[in-house]
Amino acid sequence: QVQLVESGGGLVQAGGSLRLSCVASGRTFSRYAMGWFRQAPGKEREFVAAISWNGGITYYADSVKGRFTISRDNAKNTVYLQMNSLKSEDTAVYYCAAKFDNFGYRIGRSYDYWGQGTQVTVSS
User: Fold this and answer.
1) How high is the mean pLDDT of the chain?
2) Is 89 helix (H, G, I), strand (E, B) or coil?
3) Out of 16, 31, 71, 91, which residue is the most buried by the measure of CB atoms under 10 Å away?
4) How many degrees, rounded to 5, is the angle at CA 64 between CA 36 and CA 62?
């Protein structure tokens, strides 16, 4: 079993930055690929970014490419999402997720574990 706890959300003005963190329990963190997803009110959950088990491969949604950066520190059991140049449309609850396999990074239902989420609100 893996538990994921997100932090770092908050209220920020458009154009600002936030860094989300997701800490995983357990000693097998380095075996998991990790992803970030988000869900805005009244909308479906959508893929944001993902990173392979060793950080060698990253994926981004077109809407965040060039503004967001996903990274991980396996020694700290932590994955990060650095969000720059935030826009009002980035407002959502952000979730981190973990998966055993190395395909389907953009597909939410392929992930095995999920955190509780952290709210990000961008004011215009």
Assistant:
1) 96
2) helix
3) 91
4) 100
